[in-house]
Amino acid sequence: MSLELEVAPPSPYRLPRYGSEDGVMRVEGGIATRLLHVDGCPVLTKAWEPGKGRVALRAEPLDPGSIAAPRALDGACAGEAGEAELELALERMRFALGVDDDLGEFFRRFRRDPLLGPLLRRRPYLRPRRRPWPWEALAWAVVKQLIETGRAARIQRRMVGRLGRRLGEGRDGFRDVPTPDLIAGRAPVELESMGLALRRAIALRAIAGDIAAGRCDPATTSADRRLLSVREIGPWTVQCLGLFGRGDPDSLPAGDLMYLKLVGRLARLGRRATVEEVEEFYAPYAPFRGLAAAWTSGL
To answer: Containing H/E element for 33?
Structure first.
């Protein structure tokens, strides 16, 4: 059994033309494909555009025996996905791809804005690249802290390659992001061996342990206090979680080096902006500050 549906996006839309930086989502021949585990059950999801203004999505259950688990992971998959798991897989991919986002108010409010207006007309289909699960957005935000994008992507790929479940053989196999319980069971020095700074490896392991034990739900803002109490996790990490893991259009990662440089240039400061200056620059765009920043940066 597989589930398939077709969506008419309420706002101008275009599927991503390239895969995710960690390699878990691929786009080939106009089809975006991603391996997910829903309550431990493996599901292969696909999305494509059968025509203008239409997006089709399909979720296919996989034989648990076809999934190779890393040696660090004890036990097999929970079982074959049923209808409930397939429905949830489609829901999470719709969220990650942003096909249901109605940006009408955002477009109407800022279509005549001297900065945003031309950008909205030029690329009305732009969307922040969200993650299906908040955990993924949180984990990768920790990885990305204070390092360049290319280096962060290499660390992500190493973690996925060594610790993620895999469908297929070798480099061509589809992989999934390591789960919180798996990260919680790794020694920080093992994560460090993949390129993650030791202090951030300790922080990631601590968060993963809280999530795996049910003490922290990154999908809710009630988790933010706990997250911010962990050393090496600051507002930028939580703001990335809000934008890319919860879909909050007002969540602005103001401390991002990209925005510090961008606002310094747009505001003609002659230097990098401070975090406070970035927040002040995008304040007029509330409650869409995260979206405004995405358009001005071309994310």
So the answer is: strand 31-38
Q: What is the mean pLDDT of residues 183-209?
A: 95
**Top CATH class, 3-101:** alpha beta
Every domain of the chain with CATH number 3.30.310 lies at 3-101
DSSP summary character for residue 245:
I
Residue 27 tokens, joined: 């786009």
Please give the structure tokens belonging to residue 1.
């059994």
Up-side HSE of residue 270: CA atoms within 13 Å toward CB?
A: 0
Q: For 66-97, what is each residue's pLDDT tens digit? A: 999 876 555 556 789 999 999 999 999 999 99
DSSP line for 98-167:
TTT---HHHHHHHTT-TTHHHHHHH-TT------SSHHHHHHHHHHHTTS-HHHHHHHHHHHHHHHS-EE
Segments of the chain assigned to CATH 1.10.340.30 = 134-297
pLDDT tens column, 48-60: 999 999 999 999 9
CB atoms within 10 A of CB 156: 24
CATH architecture of 134-297: Orthogonal Bundle (1.10)
